[in-house]
Design goal:
It is built from 16 helices and two strands. It has 493 residues and is mostly helical. 50% of the residues are buried.
Length: 493
C-alpha cells in the first residue's frame, strides 16, 4: 500500500515538475523578443549619448543626439533585414549554422563598414532631391530627420512581416517624400527616380537569370555526368576562380576607397589576376577534398560548402562597406549642417557616425536577424550548397554589371532574385524532365491541377508577399516621410 502511495507521489511530482518546465520554456519564448528589444533600445540610447560627447554644449546638439539615435535605430533594422540576403542561402543549404552565420556576418559587416566604408557618400541619396531647393538648413535638417525616421519604421515593419525589402529604396523613398513636403514636386530629380524604378525590375531579373545560368551549368557539367567526382575536380576550381575574380573586382571597385582608388579597367585586371591564382591554388585542394567521395550528388555538396561560406562572408564584407551609408548618410548630412550651418550633397562621414552604423547593423543581425535568414534560406525554395553558391555568385556579378551600366541597384533585390531564379529554374527543369520521360508522362498528366500547384518548388505566397513589399517600399516610405516632416516642421521650425 505504501509503495503505491509512494509511486503516486512521484507521478504527481513529475507532473508538477513538467508543468514548471513547460511554464519556464513558455516564459523564455515570450521574453526572448522583449530582451532583444530592450538591448536594442539600450544601444540606441547609448548612440545618442555618444553623439552628445561630440556636440555637447552647443545650442543645436539635441538635434544631432536625436538624429544619432534614429540612425542607430535604422542601422539595427538594416542588420535585421538586409543581412539575411547574404547569409540566408548558406544557412538554408546547411553550410553554416545559424550561430556561425551570425558571427561571420557580424564580423564581416563591421569590418566592411569600418575598413572599406565609403568616406564620401551622397547623403541626398544619389541626387534624389536638390539641396538648393530646400529653404534654409533647418528645413533641410528636419527633412533628413523625417527621411531617416520613415525609412527605419518601414524596414522595421517589413522585418516584422517577414519581407526582405531594400533599405536603399526605403531611404530613397524617405528622402523623396520629405523633399516633396519641404519644397514641392519640383525638388525631386524625376529622371533619377525613373532609373531607380527601372532597377526594381532589372535587379531581380538579372540576378535570377545569372543564378539560373550557373545552376544549369553545374547540372549539365557536373551533376548529370557519369563520373560526377571527376567532373567536379575539373569544374569546381573554375567556379572558385570565377568567384574569386568577381569578388576581387567588386571589392576593388566599390569597397577599397579608403585604401586606394582603382579605376574599373584596373579593377577587372586585378580580379582576373586573383581569379587565375585562386584557380591554380584550388585545383590540388579540390582534388584532395574529393578523395574517397562516392559518385553521387550528396558528395558534391562537400566540395561547394567552403566556397559558399567564403562567398557569404565576402558578400557581408561588401554589404557593410557599401550599405552602411543607408543608415548614416542622412545622419552625416544632419551633422554637417549642424556643424557648419550649411548643407551639401556630399559630405565626409565622421568615424563616430560610421561606428554607430557598423555596430547597429551587427546588433540588429544578432538580435533580430534569424527570422529573415530562415525565410530567405528555407522558406522561398529548398537550397543546397550548389544552388546557394549560384545565388552568391550571381549577386556579385549583377552588382558589377549594374555598376558599369550606372544603375542604382539593390543588393536585396539581386539576392532574392537569385533565390527565385534558382527555384523557378528547378521548376522548369523538373517539368521538362517529366515531359521528356515516357515513364512519368502518364502519371504527370493524371495529377490534379491543385496538386501540381502544391508541388511547385517556389512558394507562391512568399513570392507575392515579397514582390508586393518591393513595389510599395518607395511610395510607402515617401508618404510616411512627408507626414513626419510636416509634423516636425510644425513643431520645431
Amino acid at each position: 500500500m505504501s509503495s503505491n502511495k509512494s509511486d503516486h507521489n512521484w507521478k504527481t511530482l513529475d507532473r508538477d515538475l513538467g508543468r514548471i518546465a513547460s511554464f519556464e520554456s513558455a516564459t523564455l519564448y515570450v521574453a526572448k523578443p522583449i530582451v532583444g528589444i530592450g538591448i536594442a533600445m539600450v544601444f540606441i540610447l547609448l548612440a545618442g549619448i555618444a553623439s552628445s560627447m561630440f556636440f555637447g554644449g552647443t545650442s543645436t546638439s539635441y538635434v544631432v543626439i536625436a538624429a544619432a539615435a534614429v540612425g542607430a535605430y535604422m542601422a539595427v533594422n538594416i542588420g535585421a533585414n538586409d543581412v539575411a540576403n547574404n547569409m540566408g542561402p548558406a544557412v538554408g543549404a546547411n553550410a553554416l549554422t545559424m550561430g556561425g552565420a551570425i558571427v561571420i556576418a557580424a564580423l564581416c559587416e563591421t569590418a566592411g563598414a569600418l575598413l572599406a566604408g565609403g568616406d564620401v557618400v551622397s547623403t541626398i541619396s544619389k541626387g534624389i532631391i536638390d539641396p538648393e531647393s530646400v529653404a534654409g538648413h533647418n528645413v533641410f535638417i528636419w527633412a533628413m530627420m523625417a527621411a531617416l525616421v520613415s525609412s527605419a519604421l518601414w524596414v522595421n515593419l517589413a522585418t516584422w512581416l517577414g519581407a526582405p525589402v531594400s533599405t536603399t529604396h526605403a531611404v530613397v523613398g524617405g528622402v523623396m517624400g520629405a523633399g516633396i513636403a519641404a519644397a514641392g514636386f519640383g525638388a525631386v530629380n524625376w529622371p533619377t527616380m525613373g532609373t531607380i524604378a527601372a532597377s526594381w525590375v532589372i535587379s531581380p531579373v538579372l540576378g535570377g537569370a545569372i543564378a539560373a545560368l550557373f545552376l544549369w551549368f553545374i547540372k549539365a557539367q557536373i551533376i548529370y555526368q557519369d563520373d560526377k567526382i571527376a567532373a567536379a575536380r575539373k569544374w569546381v576550381p573554375v567556379l572558385i576562380g570565377i568567384m574569386s575574380g568577381v569578388f576581387a573586382t567588386y571589392l576593388a571597385m566599390k569597397g577599397l576607397k579608403k585604401v586606394i582608388v582603382i579605376s574599373p579597367p584596373m579593377a577587372v585586371l586585378v580580379g582576373l589576376a586573383i581569379g587565375v591564382v585562386l584557380y591554380f591554388v584550388s585545383v590540388p585542394f579540390v582534388k584532395r577534398q574529393s578523395e574517397g567521395l562516392e559518385n553521387r550528388n550528396k558528395s558534391l555538396k562537400v566540395l561547394f560548402t567552403i566556397p559558399l561560406v567564403i562567398s557569404a562572408a565576402l558578400l557581408s564584407f561588401a554589404h557593410g562597406a557599401n550599405d552602411v551609408a543607408n543608415a548614416v548618410g542622412p545622419l552625416a548630412a544632419i551633422v554637417h549642417a549642424e556643424e557648419f550651418g550649411e548643407f551639401a550633397g556630399k559630405v565626409e562621414i565622421p568615424m563616430w557616425v560610421m561606428i554607430i552604423g557598423a555596430l547597429g547593423i551587427s546588433f540588429g543581425l544578432v538580435l533580430f536577424g534569424p527570422k529573415l535568414i530562415r525565410m530567405v534560406g528555407n522558406q522561398i525554395t529548398k537550397l543546397n550548397p550548389m544552388r546557394a553558391y549560384c545565388v552568391a555568385l550571381s549577386a556579385a556579378i549583377t552588382v558589377i554589371i549594374a555598376s558599369w551600366l550606372g544603375l542604382p541597384v539593390s543588393s536585396t533585390h539581386i539576392a532574392i532574385g537569385g533565390v527565385f531564379g534558382v527555384g523557378f529554374f528547378r521548376e522548369y527543369h523538373e517539368e521538362r524532365r517529366a515531359r521528356l520521360s515516357n515513364a512519368t508522362r502518364d502519371v504527370a498528366e493524371r495529377i490534379a491541377p491543385e496538386e501540381r500547384r502544391r508541388r511547385k518548388l517556389v512558394r507562391r505566397s512568399h513570392f507575392l508577399t515579397i514582390i508586393a513589399a518591393w513595389v510599395i517600399t518607395v511610395p510607402a516610405a515617401a508618404f510616411m516621410s512627408g507626414i513626419i516632416f510636416l509634423i516636425l516642421h510644425t513643431a520645431f521650425v
